Amino acid sequence: MFTKEDIAQIEQRGSSVQTVEEQVERFKKGFPWLKIVAPATPERGIQVLDEAAVEAAASYYDNATMNGKCKFVPASGAASRMFKDLFSGLDALKAGKELADDAPAARFVDQIQSFAFYTPELFGEQTCKCPEYRESVLAKTLTDEGLGYGAKPKGVLKFHKYTDGEIRTAFAEHLVEAQNYMRNEDGTANLVVTISPEHQHLFEEAYAEVKAAYEAKYGVKYNITFTFQDKATDTVAVDVENKPFRTETDSLLFRPAGHGALIYNLNNIAEEVVSIKNIDNVANERLLPDTATWKKVLLGKALELRDTLHGYLRELDAVCNPIQGSRNTTVGVPGYDPVYDDLCSTPEAIALCNDIEAFLKNVLCVEMPEAETPKMRVEALRAKLDRPVRVAGMVKNQGEPGGGPFIIAEKDGSTSLQVLESVQINMSDEHARECLANATHFNPVDIVCCLHNYKGESFDLLKYVDEDAGFISSKSYQGRELKALELPGLWNGAMSNWNTLFVEVPLETFNPVKVVLDLLRPAHQN
């Protein structure tokens, strides 16, 4: 299948022939559909907190102990999709066509003075609807003739302009958020920002512009780490016949494997508590009090869940495992320990297991299959408890694009809470379609993680990925059709085997900028 040149190309990327062969085989066999039990709703699967519960969760966070915390911000990739409509409008104008006044590109030009990146020096003080002016504004926004925003990452674009004249990028707003709700006791705020190598200088310049001012204004010291999506996680593309796709130079074509590749970046974080939020989900600072309150709620719920799970694990150690490391195998059966087996069968152990199963079922929607023996029951519960924690905010479904919360059936016979994308839902299955139709919430990517186990050690997050939860999508290269393989998404299959809790958060805390006209929404204006 592969030539010597192919093998050299594969190894140069830090991958292996075996890995690429497995990827090609995955294209051939595809991914299995996940079995949906029900949508996660406020009736079951999503916690809706009253005012007292909100205060209690935020207070829990304020008083909790943890081994460091940081903000994780996926920020790689250019903002080309954000300006897709503008590129289309520019192409049309260049071809001598006129834009309808209600076309996105025309609306953008008409309101150019409302955007934070507007300057009269670049765009002029007077606007008009003539094709020449519209073409000029679009070109100065998108190309090197002006701002060059069409090829820059979202994080360094100017999102907000304040009444005092300050202009902030999306990245700057994440810095302001971090000092508010993710500050460590020593006054530091840690951020890990995933970027593309070619954009590093732009982020460093954007950081340098505000670092001193923000540290002085907010009394904080920032620790910023820029990380890259490892090229070794890129996946090979195939043609429509599932054969490795070859470029015009007969080389293999590799593509970034989606945000699921960032599980490797997350796995390198030493801090125990991590807050995840996409680069474009920020708002004017006047909304920060509400944003921070609800972020603290998620942090508090995550730490409360962590403490409950760790408490159960310590109880299991005390009740069922008093002689750790000294299993008696004298009967010749590996792993056989009559003392341990008997302890798992005591009334105390059975009562504890009952409590754990009730908690898993009622709080995390994890229903356990019946175990064959008391010992197997204890070990199954221990395995379910001893996993990374994620608490994900969910907002009421208002038609925004994004994944949604569901209860699914796992391979081991248990159930769990998962975030599913539309491509993971079998639309030919009537029950799956019904569950999707009855879904009430969607995922804004507002997540808090606890990454240490009950012994204070970091989890190896790669062990908790569901490799069967990836995606295959249709793409093109220079007009030629191809198939692309995406790894299990960071908040989808990459976190599949985590302990998960969903909490409803207000829609006001979700203010993404998917297209440039979103910057005209109230959350991004003064």
Question: What is the strand content?
Answer: 15-25%
**Assigned CATH superfamily of the largest domain:** Spore Coat Polysaccharide Biosynthesis Protein SpsA, Chain A
Domain unit count: 2
Please report the distance between the alpha carbons of the first and last residues. 58 Å
Kindly report the average pLDDT value. Answer: 93
Unreliable segments of 5+ consecutive residues? 324-334
What name is given to the CATH topology of the largest domain? Spore Coat Polysaccharide Biosynthesis Protein SpsA, Chain A
> What is the helix tally?
15
Biggest β-sheet description: 9 strands, mixed
Q: Architecture of the largest domain, CATH level 2?
A: Alpha-Beta Complex
How many beta-strand segments? 18
What is the rounded Rg? 26 Å
Q: Portion of residues in helices?
A: 25-40%
Q: Give the structural class.
A: alpha/beta
Global shape: globular
Quick synopsis:
This protein has 526 residues and is an alpha/beta fold.
Please give the structural blueprint.
Blueprint: H1 4-12, H2 17-29, E1 35-39, E2 46-47, H3 51-63, E3 69-74, H4 84-94, H5 104-110, H6 120-123, H7 131-142, E4 158-161, E5 167-169, H8 170-181, E6 188-195, H9 200-218, E7 221-228, E8 235-236, E9 254-255, H10 263-267, E10 273-277, H11 288-320, H12 338-343, H13 347-364, H14 374-385, E11 389-396, E12 404-409, E13 415-420, H15 430-437, E14 441-442, E15 446-450, E16 471-477, E17 480-486, E18 499-504
Parallel strand pairs: 2-18, 3-6, 3-10, 6-7, 11-18
Antiparallel strand pairs: 1-12, 4-5, 8-9, 10-15, 11-14, 11-15, 12-13, 16-17
Helix pairs in contact: 3-11, 4-5, 4-7, 5-7, 8-9, 11-13, 13-14
